[in-house]
Amino acid sequence: MREFEMDNFAYLLTDRNFSRRPFIISTYPKEWLEIYTYGHYYLNDPVIRHAFTRVTPFSWQAGERRDLIEYDGEVFHQSSRFKIDAGYTFVVRGGLGEMGALSICRSEKKADFEQNILRRSGDLQMLLLQAHEVASDAFFADDPRVNSIDQYHLSDREKSVVHWAAQGKTYHEIGIILGFKERTIKKYMASVVSKLEVANAKHAISKSIELQLISSRS
Predict the structure, then answer these.
(1) Which residues of the chain have pLDDT under 50?
(2) Exposure of 124 in the CB half-sphere (CA atoms within 13 A)
(3) How far apart (Å, rounded) are the C-alpha atoms in residues 78 and 28?
């Protein structure tokens, strides 16, 4: 944590419908985590709700703060009791419609906090991608869609590429979302085409949707 100049962090993995309890790893105070989890605060957490609308990192301050409070200011009111008030959140989406959010928090508002986070944003986004790849495997272990995907040996990154391509995103746009160069995204798609034994990316997308290897929803 000291490397990124933060006091606490929280990683949360969930699906859009909250069909199961979210997977959470955090250094927040134990009392707050119990209140948050058993009180089902994640259902109304403005940071999590806002994360579902974003593909880029966002601050909890300034204009973003007003947008977040419009969702539900009560969660912020409660978390401030535990000095969880200033933060920055990174977002990742997966091929099964899940969302992972990594929130970096400081107990004291410092002018250079966001600048330090932005300077290390690439490292933090990569850390989130790596954590999400491991966590999502466990989170969806009993999901039949995972078993379907596994027989084709698609990696989480390949699933994500196909998912975003199915949403009409270009390779360049997918690269921005996932934090990779465009040529890397093309290599992932070429690998998917080969594994699914189809002619091109368009066929790979349609076959993935047909076999429910990915979610067709954004």
Answers:
(1) none
(2) 27
(3) 13
Q: At what angle do helices 30-38 and 62-79 cross, to 10 degrees?
A: 90
State both tokens at 199.
Answer: 């002619």
pLDDT digits (tens, 9 = 90+) for 66-110: 666 665 678 888 888 898 878 899 999 876 778 999 999 876 666
Q: Distance between CA 137 and CA 139 in Å, rounded? A: 6
What pTM was estimated for this model as a whole?
0.64
**How many helical (H) and strand (E) elements, i.e. helices and strands, does the chain have?**
10, 5
**Cβ count near 114 (within 10 Å):** 20
Q: What is the pLDDT of residue 85?
A: 79
**Residue among 139, 61, 69 nearest 103 (CA):** 61
Query: Which amino acid type is present at position 144?
Result: P
CB count within 10 Å of CB 156 equals 20
- Which residue type sits at 104? I
Helices 156-166 and 182-196: crossing angle in degrees, nearest 10, is: 100
Q: What is the pLDDT of residue 212?
A: 74
Q: What pLDDT is stored for residue 29 in this prediction?
A: 93
Is 90 buried (19+), middle (13-18) or exposed (0-12) by CB count in 10 A? buried
Q: Which amino acid, residue 194? A: S
In the chain the domains, ranked by start, together with CATH numbers, are 2-139 (3.30.450.80), 144-210 (1.10.10.10)
Burial of 47 from C-beta contacts in 10 A (0-12 / 13-18 / 19+): buried
Q: What is the mean pLDDT of the chain?
A: 83
